[in-house]
Amino acid sequence: MLKISKGKVARPLRVVIDGVEGIGKSTFAAQFPDPLFVDLEKGTDSMDVARTQMPETWEELMQIAKDVVADPSVCKTLVVDTGDWAEHLCENYVCRNQRVSGIEDVGYGKGYTYLREAFADFLKALDAVIDAGVNVVICCHTQIKKFELPDEQGAYDRYELKLSKQVSPLVREWCDLQLFANFKTYVVATDKNNKHHKGTGGTKRVMYASHTASWDAKNRHGLPDEMDFCFKSIAHLFGDVQPKQPEPSPLEQVRELLASSNITEDELKAVVVQKGKYPAEATLEDYEASFLTGWIIKYWKDIVPLVEKNREANANG
Question: How many CB atoms lie within 10 A of CB 85?
Answer without folding.
Answer: 22
